[in-house]
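Protein modeling request. Please complete all fields; requests missing the sequence field cannot be processed.
Requester role: graduate student
Desired output: 3D structure, token encoding
Chains: 1
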Amino acid sequence: MNSATYIMALMMGLTGSLHCVGMCGPIIWIMPFQRFTGLRKALALGIYHLSRISVYAAMAVVLHSFRSVFNPQVQQYVSIALGALLLLAGLLYFFPVGKLVPVSLPWAGFVKNRLSALVGSTRLSAIALSGLLNGMLPCGLVYMALSATISLSTATDAILFVYTFGAGTVPVLTGISLLRSRMPILQRSSFRKLTPVIVMCFGCLFLLRGLNLGIPYLSPKVQMQHGKVQHSCCHKK
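Delivered output (237 residues):
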């Protein structure tokens, strides 16, 4: 996996973390991080986010195991379709056509109930479990990152991609847990307004990657030659 892929994963996390504030911010705010001090607070935050991101990494491994089902051309079609759906989702925010029914995963109710019973505990084991449960909640941003792992060569690359993406979400989420009482702007409604813009930006990115235009970093040229995948990502030899 080249450096451009790591940069894309990190930028997805950094920019997408504004969406995380709107969706996961309320959970972060009621976590008992303010009751810790010094190194113990840093440890609690680290355990929480590591647990959360590790769930994403496990999902990436499972999804990547189906990679052989998709040849490069099918992956391009998937990328184009996903990009179009993201653009449509962003546009619908500005031109509502009716109330959309949110997607609910079968285990979402159980996860929310267990999470509500743990969020007030200061035990590090409870904080770790809270992070794991948070990682299991439905999140469109995470699903975007996971879909990008299908095109990676190995499961290790998929894991590194997701951990890099997850690291990008940590600064903003850590900031709101530490500074929320001092920064009134860190409100759910403020950041939710940015969500459609972020979704549309990633929609454009997925469209570009799927169109196979040969644009360095953004839309690498991928084709099959003699049964092998040939791609031109960053430069010409």
